[in-house]
Amino acid sequence: MSLENLLMFAGALVVLFLTPGPGIAAMIARTLDAGPWHAAMYGVGILTGDIFWFTLAVTGLAAVADQLGAFWLVAKLIGAGYLGYMAFKAFWSAYTGARPKPVFPSGSKRGWAATYVAGVAMPLSNPKPIVFYLTLVPAFVPIEAITAWSYAAMVAIMIVLAIPAAAVYIIGAHKARDWMQTPAVRKGTDIVTGLVMTAIAVILLLR
User: Would you state the pLDDT for residue 44?
Assistant: First the structure.
């Protein structure tokens, strides 16, 4: 594995991580809804799903993915269900003017786990990372040249690049969060958030 291959892989990841998509939109909405730390946990889930697809590509198991239709259906249902729940909370907040009580207490292990699992489900059912890791990665990197060490290095690159990319969106959304707490602005942003989450959920189910 050459340094040039690693740099090409890193450059492709930058484009993947910074290009707006359903995952980023959901992470921003999670920031506005529950704060930056829950959004960060959602991002960790997304990264886990990305690493899954990358591992599938480098181990030559991409063909197996075609036989796992039931698995992808479950991933879609989990991701869409969680997004639908977020959309419901946003619409409820816009309707009542008050934040609904969360299903899980703030900071509870079940709350963190639900956020993480929903994050994992996002890339598992989103065509963007699927196409990138299973078709584009082999174009940048000679799969046959990947060793255990180069695999570890590439996963490390993914983690190092994912953190600042996610931070850009999370911090930006968090800074705007206080301004969005005024009643009129919050109602509008709740409606927009609900519509965005509903649209993403529908897209995941239809693709």
Answer: 94
